[in-house]
Amino acid sequence: MKSAAKRIVATLALATLALVGSAFAGTGYPVSGKWTYDGASEPGPAPKCNGPRYMKFDGTTRHDTGGGIADFKNTSTVQTGAGAYRVVDMFYNAQTRGNVIFSLRVADADHIQINYSKGGQLALRRCA
Questions:
Q1: Rounded to two decimals, what is the model's pTM?
Q2: Number of folded domains in the chain?
Q3: Residues near 70 by beta carbon (within 8 Å), at least 6 away in sequence
Q4: Which pick of 2, 27, 113, 122 has the fewest CB atoms within 10 Å?
Q5: Mean pLDDT (the chain, rounded)
């Protein structure tokens, strides 16, 4: 009888930890896939994305070839309006650990705009 009660308590404790851990995990990005810096203002998706500068969103990770840090992990995404989001990413490059905060606006199905909180903005175009 005592071992059954211990198993129930242990199961409840593990379930609680899982819920608390998931509450603080990254929520993911409002877009996914590969996006190019090239021809970002042209209409529709980019037919070719063979250029060296792109950003790829995959669940709670982001890979960016356009800057000094390539890999990011999403820590939070909060919708702030219609198609507008406040995003916080974490990075670690073996020397520095930090956060990047930016707003992401989904202009349409093929175009997004990113405005970094510390300055700088860019437009991206979905890869076909």
A1: 0.76
A2: 1
A3: 63, 64
A4: 2
A5: 85
